[in-house]
Write a structure and sequence with these properties.
alpha+beta; about 40% strand; START-like_dom_sf
Length: about 220
């Protein structure tokens, strides 16, 4: 079951302003933050890229957040396996490698514990489909896993101004686990429909493959 996306327009920007945000994001991306430009995967370059990209994300939220459109989507799925098995597998980003249709690799920046969460900071290497071509993307992210509460959150950002905020919750009944992905997509007006369509379809596909491989014992 997938709920109908609920659109929440917060001060939708005129197209000219959205275009400015888009152009600025592209310029920043080519300057070396998470975008289409490639970096070495060495530890030092990944650390530098993550720090610069995360700072750009925070600056964009502060300075241009009101220009972004927001769409929320809720995606529940029930997996025929107990919670104690589903949660550690589903919350591990590496489980999606080879299963998520966009995700090609995950480069780690650092991991640590903070405020009851296990935090993982990373760069996702992706190939985003756009018609007949695939757009290379490097998406900066931070995941916070609250194991005691059986939930986790993830924030990701890539130029030009595409933000995905996730809260994933888990509940068990009669030996099966329901995983609910609460997704918030934010992007300039020119990109919001593309972002929501691609983001939602990729999450649904990833959910279905994780369900299959958890239930058949592959994961």
């Amino acid at each position: 079951m997938v709920e109908r996306p609920e659109r929440l327009r917060r001060g939708a920007a005129p197209k000219a302003l959205a275009a400015l945000v888009l152009a600025a994001g592209l310029a920043v991306g080519h300057a070396g933050v998470a975008g289409a430009q490639s970096f070495s995967s060495s530890s030092s370059s990944v650390d530098t890229e993550w720090e610069i990209s995360w700072a750009a994300y925070q600056a964009e939220e502060r300075l241009a957040g009101s220009l972004l459109e927001t769409v929320e989507v809720t995606l529940p799925i029930t997996i025929d396996a107990p919670l104690d098995h589903v949660f550690p597998v589903y919350s591990n980003l590496n489980s999606s490698l080879g299963r998520h249709p966009f995700l090609m690799d995950v480069l780690d920046h650092r991991s640590y514990s903070e405020d009851g969460a296990d935090v993982r900071e990373f760069i996702a290497i992706e190939g985003v489909p756009a018609g007949s071509v695939s757009i290379p993307a490097r998406t900066v992210g931070q995941q916070r896993v609250y194991a005691a509460d059986h939930r986790y959150t993830t924030e990701t950002w890539s130029a030009p101004g595409v933000i995905t905020q996730q809260e994933i919750t888990f509940s068990e009944e009669a030996g099966s686990t329901t995983v609910t992905e609460h997704l918030t997509f934010k992007a300039p007006a020119l990109l919001i429909d593309f972002t929501v369509q691609n983001g939602t379809s990729s999450h649904i596909e990833n959910q279905q493959v994780l369900k299959r491989d958890i239930e058949n014992g592959t994961l």
